[in-house]
């Protein structure tokens, strides 16, 4: 149980393109999902907390207009990287929390490469 | 916010020896401390966790200790095997459920 699916797993696109990443909790309802970014050989850095039915909470230094987060249902959160540039190339990972429980369950991650 | 420091950044051990990774945290409100193993290009996998009301927990070759007073916790891997080679992250969680990760330790087990 507690499976989180993330799609796509790999994206290569041109600079200026917007990219949408989906994070789904398959067998539980997740009122809260988290989005992380991981650059090569670095740790996971929390970008934002996604709450179902309300606006996401962004960490300091993360541009909310560039990284659009939508959590319209209890099983789906999306992250859209708008007008992506090469410096946005990274590994993006979502996680979901089963209410009342730890730990968070991670998706498989999305490798984003902007040319 | 929470600040988690992790040492060492790299660790090379002979197969069969033990590996120890240490972390400290800053927020005394942190109450949950998971450890993750991450292989290249993969998701972090939870390997063990400990809550603030427990001082030690063991699962086969893996153990974690927590010292709340000193705000530090450690991961111990005994009888290391080549498949233990990976990057390990400690993390701390406060009541807002946010994970604050350490910088990671690259563990290499030499056969």
Brief overview:
The complex is a heterodimer of chains A (115) and B (111). Chain A is mainly beta and 115 residues long.
Give your account of this protein's structure.
The complex is a heterodimer of chains A (115) and B (111). Helix content of chain A is 0%, strand content 52%. Chain A is built from no helices and 11 strands. The mean pLDDT of chain A is 92. Chain A is globular and about 40 Å long. By secondary structure, chain A is an all-beta fold. In chain A, the strands form 2 sheets. In chain A, strands 2, 4, 5, 6, 9, 10 and 11 form a 7-stranded mixed beta sheet that branches. A 4-stranded antiparallel beta sheet of chain A has the order 1-3-8-7, with no helix packed on it. In chain A, a hairpin with a 6-residue loop joins β9 and β10. In chain B, the strands form 2 sheets. In chain B, strands 2, 4, 5, 9, 10 and 11 form a 6-stranded mixed beta sheet that branches. In chain B, strands 1-3-8-7-6 form a 5-stranded antiparallel beta sheet, with no helix packed on it. Chain B has no helices and 11 strands. The model of chain B has no long low-confidence stretch (mean pLDDT 95). Chain B is globular, with a radius of gyration of 13 Å. Chain B is mostly beta strands and 111 residues long. Classes of the chains: A mainly beta (115), B mainly beta (111). The interface between A and B is medium-sized, with 20 and 20 residues.
What low-confidence regions of chain B span 5 or more consecutive residues with pLDDT below 50? none
- Straight-line distance between termini of chain B: 41 Å
- Indicate the proportion of strand residues of chain A: over 45%
| Topology, number of strands of chain B | 11
Mean pLDDT across all amino acids of chain A:
92
Radius of gyration of chain B: 13 Å
* Quaternary structure of the protein: heterodimer
Overall spatial form of chain B: globular
Helix content of chain B: under 10%
Main sheet record of chain B: 6 strands, mixed
Order of helices and strands of chain A: EEEEEEEEEEE
**Most extensive protein-chain contact, per-chain counts:** A-B, 20 and 20 residues
Instruction: Describe the sheet with the most strands of chain A.
Output: 7 strands, mixed
């Amino acid at each position: 149980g507690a499976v989180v699916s993330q799609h796509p797993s790999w994206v290569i696109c041109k600079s200026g393109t917007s990219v949408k990443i989906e994070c789904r909790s398959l067998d539980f309802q997740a009122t809260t999902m988290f989005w992380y970014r991981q650059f090569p050989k670095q740790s996971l850095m929390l970008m934002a907390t996604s709450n179902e039915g309300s606006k996401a909470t962004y960490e300091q230094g993360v541009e909310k207009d560039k990284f659009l987060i939508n959590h319209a249902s209890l099983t789906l959160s999306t992250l859209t990287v708008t007008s992506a540039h090469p410096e946005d190339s990274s590994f993006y990972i979502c996680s979901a929390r089963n209410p009342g429980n730890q730990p968070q369950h991670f998706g498989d991650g999305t490798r984003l490469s902007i040319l | 916010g929470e600040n988690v420091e992790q040492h060492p950044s790299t660790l090379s051990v002979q197969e069969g020896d033990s590996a120890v990774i240490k972390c400290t945290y800053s927020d005394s409100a942190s109450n949950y401390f998971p450890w993750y193993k991450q292989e290249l290009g993969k998701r972090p996998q939870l390997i063990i966790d400990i809550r603030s009301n427990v001082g030690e927990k063991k699962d086969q070759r893996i153990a974690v200790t927590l010292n709340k007073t000193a705000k530090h916790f450690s991961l111990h891997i005994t009888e290391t095997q080549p498949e233990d080679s990976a990057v390990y992250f400690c993390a701390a969680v406060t009541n807002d459920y946010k994970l604050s990760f350490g910088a990671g330790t690259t563990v290499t087990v030499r056969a």
